[in-house]
Amino acid sequence: MDKSKRPFLKSKRSFRRRLPPIQSGDRIDYRNMSLLRRFMSQQGKILSRRVNRLTLKQQRLITIAIKQARILALLPFINKANQKQFQRTKSTARTTGLRTRNK
To answer: What average pLDDT does the structure give for the chain?
Structure first.
């Protein structure tokens, strides 16, 4: 089928313009908790630049601010709700007795 006979296909991309995640008045600072939490996942990880739709400079500033807030204990390193998976379970011995060397 050549191009002239194809039916008009709509583009998969939407043309809606989204507001930028960081407005011009927002200060990227370690004390601005509401701003920093928008760029973190539920587990407490820093989201990537593509997900955040930030410029490289903005992503660097956000990353530094989040790390400073973590060090000053303003933000957790991991989310406490998901901490159960990181807790160590009771260890069991791999062997039941001492091993002896057979000659």
So the answer is: 78
Beta bridge partners of 15: none
One-letter identity of residue 76: P
CA distance 73 to 59: 21
pTM: 0.60
DSSP, collapsed to helix, strand or coil, labels residue 65 as helix
Residue 95 in this model has a pLDDT that exceeds 90: no
Distance separating alpha carbons of residues 79 and 42, to the nearest angstrom: 7
Q: Using CA atoms, how far apart are residues 12 and 100, in angstroms rounded to an integer? A: 68
CB 36: neighbour CB atoms within 10 A?
A: 21
Paired tokens of 95: 């062997």
